[in-house]
Amino acid sequence: MANLKIDELFNIAGKTALVTGGSRGIGEMIAAGLLANGVTVYISSRKADVCDATAERLSQEYGGTCVSLPADLSNLEGIDSLVAGLKEHTDSVDILVNNAGASWGATIEEFPENGWDKVMDTNVKGVFFLTQRLLPMLETNATSDDPSRVINIGSVDGLTAPAWDTFSYSTSKAAVHHLTRHLAAHLTRRHITVNAIAPGPYPTWMLSTGVGTGGDVEGTDWDMIGRGNPRGRVGTPEDITGLVVFLSSRAGSYTVGETITTDGGQINASRGLPSTS
Question: How many CA atoms lie within 13 Å of 221's alpha carbon, on the beta-carbon side?
Fold first, then answer.
């Protein structure tokens, strides 16, 4: 008889996860949500001091194990360094969240090559090669009944053309969505499911730079920004955590190659609606 109880369907306790870009923003929200549900979490980001501080704070707040493994995932040297550091702590990964990302804004006439390369290297190349390097660790515990999970964090900007001059960012996120489908086609039979999440507006450093507050997350009027969204608000940690827990649990083990939006209806429910500003 099928076990349809919530505590079994969504139970992820005892698993091991790596969350890249886990020191702030959506990555930190995901790391916190996994810790709160009994997962051992490793986080990575470029800035070692910030990554270390976040890992220590999350461990204390949620009473679990959160380990900092700083690395620059825009190049193979940084990726291999992260994998080597991870292997010093564990021989397996059950959940890989490819969240590390970069953005760049400039007019089409002035958009520089280094702005294109930095974003594509971090957001696309990093996702592919980190997943590639971690395949043996992802396969260690993977079974038909309980596959390992790769969750790539894309963006609604990869689903529709944004108003901002972030040409490499939107292109990179569209690439992440398609890479998700391609990886899923190759890895599902190896008991590794691959899916993507495409967030809309969340209260993050990256979005604060886009709306003109220059990275001042606390000083940004998120209520005002949320009023322009069909749901009337920006995303919360519960919103992103709910999707990650679903995709990481028994409840999501038959979901493969999908890109799931979490945007308050920004794409599908906003056309034709009057302004709420």
Answer: 6
DSSP category for residue 268: T
CB 194 within 8 A of CB 130: no
pLDDT at 56: 98
Whether residue 277 is predicted with pLDDT greater than 50 in this model: the reply is: no
In the Cβ-directed half-sphere of 39, how many Cα atoms lie within 13 Å?
30
Provide the domain count of the chain.
Answer: 1
pTM of the shown model: 0.93
For the chain, percent of residues with pLDDT exceeding 70: 93
Range of 18's domain?
Answer: 6-200+235-262
254 is catalytic: no
> Which residue out of 42, 62, 169, 202 is catalytically annotated?
169
How many Å apart are CA 191 and CA 230, to the nearest integer? 37
Residue 223 lies in a domain: no
